[in-house]
Amino acid sequence: MTTPVQTNDLSDKVAIVTGAASGIGRATVELLVERGARVVAEDRNVAVEALASPSVAPLVADVTDEDSAHRAVALAQQRFGGLDILVNNAGIIINKTVADMTLDDWNSILAVNATGAFLHSREAVRAMTPQKSGAIVNVGSYACFQAFPTIAAYAASKGALAQLTRALSLEVIEHGIRVNAVGSGDVITHILDEIHEDGSGFLAEHGSGTPIGRAAQPREIAQVIAFLASEQAAYLVGSIVMADGGMSVAAG
Questions:
Q1: Which sequence positions are flagged as catalytic?
Q2: Phi–psi pair at 55, nearest 5 degrees
Q3: In whole angstroms, how far apart are CA 196 and each of 39, 41, 57, 239?
Q4: What is the rounded CA–CA span in Å between residue 85 and residue 29?
Q5: Which of 155, 172, 179, 239 would suit a FRET pair with 198, their CA atoms being 20 to 30 Å apart?
Q6: What digits encode the pLDDT tens for the residues 61-105?
Q7: Which pLDDT value is given to residue 186?
Q8: Domain ranges, ordered by start, for the chain
């Protein structure tokens, strides 16, 4: 018996990507469309509207708002006829010690990085269960497992995301829904622009300390996301695929 060849073609698939206005999110939207998918691109930044096309429906929304998840799924269904893929990419970070951190600081990080993923995953699962198929990809970090000073809130949120990935994967695999995550390393994006004068430059410099000797480009992480969303990853359930240039190996 010949085993069918699995491909990463995403023709006729419908996806939601959060945090889609720039960085990894934008690169993921662009790559999924290249591979045939139609995408709801969600971001609280109105710049996401620039992605509008016959294959991309922008949605300006804050992932921490419970209604945003309802709106994203409804838009996918109304505009493109269903939902097959969810990419929980929206994320923020602060660099403060626990002693210097306010409750608002802590809550804001957890709300975006963990609660937003929960809300969108819940609504996606409800939409995917009747069709007995689907893929959820969470964008984690080396901070799913490692930490260093000043990232306590971020590390806690990414640890929560890793455990959400694992627990949810066990709940929904019987319905044909796969849940996995990518553990991203330093990526040259604008996530640190509110913390550092040259956020992307800081990430490039920090990434030079990894075993691979550089930070990643957003599309390199998007490639892993697209793989996890595709049938090529059909046997991956609850995995956190580390794409961090060897940082977690060296730390371990």
A1: 154
A2: -105, -5
A3: 32, 27, 32, 32
A4: 12
A5: 155
A6: 999 999 999 999 999 999 999 999 999 999 999 999 999 999 999
A7: 85
A8: 14-251
